[in-house]
Amino acid sequence: MNHDAAQSPLCGRDRLIAATALVVDRGRDSFILTANGADVHAFRNACPHQGTPLENPLGQVLDADGTHLVCSTHGARFRLSDGYCVTGICQGLSLRAVATRVDGGQIYLATPGGA
Ligand code: FES
After folding, report:
1. 1 has a pLDDT exceeding 60
2. What is the CA angle 109-31-66, rounded to 5?
3. What percent of the residues of the chain are helix, what percent strand, and what percent coil, each to the nearest 5?
4. Which of 54, 74, 86, 87 to mutate to test the pocket of ligand 1 (most atoms within 8 A of CB)?
5. Does ligand 1 come within 6 angstroms of the Cβ of 73?
6. Pairing with 9, which of 18, 23, 24, 63 sits 20 to 30 Å away (CA)?
7. How far is the CA of 50 from the centre of ligand 1 (A)?
8. Is 85 exposed, middle or buried (CB count within 10 Å of its CB: 0-12, 13-18, 19+)?
9. Are 22 and 11 in contact (CB under 8 A)?
């Protein structure tokens, strides 16, 4: 990843709040960004059950109610606020959180690569 790619925003904060959850690919890395009210959170896009990406073929990661993330592989559901799995085969485990920062209305990885 070059320096410019590392410093480019993942997405706009307002766009994320409107969508509630978005998948953002950055090179070989994939992240899920969520908005819980005005709070922004980010996670590695890898289910703690088998490591697969959560989104369905349409790119959607929210459940039908729009209140939780849902894994399209086996249906585990995760809280938007902390990625904790509330129902499903990996109940009690969590998505891996990624630190972000918001600057000028844009969301950035706090560290290159989302360490
Ligand atoms: S891979 Fe996500 S619930 Fe099985």
Report:
1. no
2. 120
3. 10, 35, 50
4. 74
5. yes
6. 63
7. 6
8. buried
9. yes
Report how far ligand 1's centroid is from the alpha carbon of 3 (Å): 33
The first and second tokens of residue 12, run together, are: 């706009």
Instruction: Tell me which residue has its CA closest to atom 4 in ligand 1.
Output: 74
Asked whether 96 and 83 are in contact (CB, 8 A), the reply is: yes
For residue 2, CA distances in Å to 36, 73, 109, 110 come to 31, 32, 14, 16
Question: First CA to last CA across the chain, in angstroms?
Answer: 14
In one-letter notation, the amino acid at residue 7 is Q
- Model-wide pTM > 0.85: yes
CB-based contact 94:78 (threshold 8 Å) = yes
For 37-73, strand residue ranges (E) read 39-44, 68-70
Average pLDDT of span 84-107: 97
The tokens for 115 are 């360490």
What pLDDT shows up at residue 114?
72
Structure tokens at 48: 């703690």
102's tokens: 């918001």
DSSP letter assigned to residue 62: B
